[in-house]
Amino acid sequence: MEDESNELASRPLPRLEEMDTKYFWQETRNKRLSYQICENCSKVVFHPRAHCPGCLEGRLSWQASSGRGEIYSFSIVRQSYHPFFRGLIPYVVAWIDIDEGFRVLSNVICSDISLADVKIGSRVELEWEEHEQLCIPLFRLI
Ligand SMILES: [Zn+2]
What we know:
- This protein is mainly beta and 142 residues long.
- Helix content is 11%, strand content 37%.
- The protein is built from 3 helices and 8 strands, in the order ααββββαββββ.
- The chain has helices at residues 4-8, 22-28, 83-86; strands spanning 34-38, 44-45, 60-64, 68-77, 91-98, 102-109, 123-130, 135-141.
- The strands form 2 sheets. It has a 5-stranded mixed β-barrel. Strands 2-1-3 form a 3-stranded antiparallel sheet.
- Strand 7 (123-130) and strand 8 form a beta hairpin.
- The radius of gyration is 17 Å and the shape is globular.
- Mean pLDDT is 92; it is low at 1-6.
- Bound molecules: zinc ion.
- Zinc ion binds at residues 38, 40-41, 43, 52, 54-55, 57.
């Protein structure tokens, strides 16, 4: 019988076959944070989707982000009922304004000591968490 505790303690991962986000997750294997730009109105589009939310055009081009940005807002999670996230507490969940003009919800990785250093406006950069079929974009203070 397999030990189910290891499976329960792994990070929940996204579905790779979802049409709008498939390319995004494929690019994470190459450690590229991808976003879209509308070819009609130049709006920066994130999360990935089939149409521009500004003008409803469907011609979106893919771009690779620098992976740098600053914390727009954050919360420190001190309690979790999910086995994987329980093992991380306390951890930071943050909205991050990426330099190219889009906002991402992710974690800011830090030790217990540096939790106090996390501030609105703190600069962060990508740090990838590797998995078999994709990488998860996490962030670290810089
Ligand atoms: Zn547009």
